[in-house]
Amino acid sequence: MSENERNVRNERNEQATAGVEAHVREFFTGHTITVSDYDLGPGRREAVPGLRILTVSPGPRSDSWAYITAGCWSTVETDGHGLEFVLAAPVRDERFADLLAMTACYHADRHLGLEHSLPIGEPWLPGSHCDHLLVSLPYLHGPDLEQCPLPDGDARILWVLPVTAAESAYRREHGHEALERLFDEHAIVPTDPRRPSVV
Which of 21, 23, 101, 105 would disulfide-bridge 148, Cβ 3.0–4.6 Å? Predict the structure, then answer.
């Protein structure tokens, strides 16, 4: 790749990241939002260059915290279409930014999509049974957050929902919709780290 091509790509990526940030700020008007550049560290930095994590406080749209990636789109976009991720949380904690950064790195390597899941190797919060993340529609925030127009396409912001290993296995065997029906039947509180498994 020539230096000119690299510069064009970098500029396009920066525009996409700025577009995601502007979209999130507009959607969460009235919330306090902080933006952090996230360095994945040596060996992984190149997987998602320029990754930012947006931290959104509780406010008029939601009573929970939200952590949102900006920068995933450019790693795995196809014809201008790519993904970003949102995680809802009960409190402010850097751990959630770390979980999203891990998700971004996993996505760069494995190309996550709707209805996929990934193990996180430990509970998402101490005392929780949830040690996997399920990629789902952002039901807590709706399609207005999900659909993010960008100058060269669009980003789809999908929810990473903490789930148990048993729930993840149930999804593989019975399908995503069957698991979502169980979530509805049990009226889960997705930000409750101590919620029981529905299977």
Answer: 23
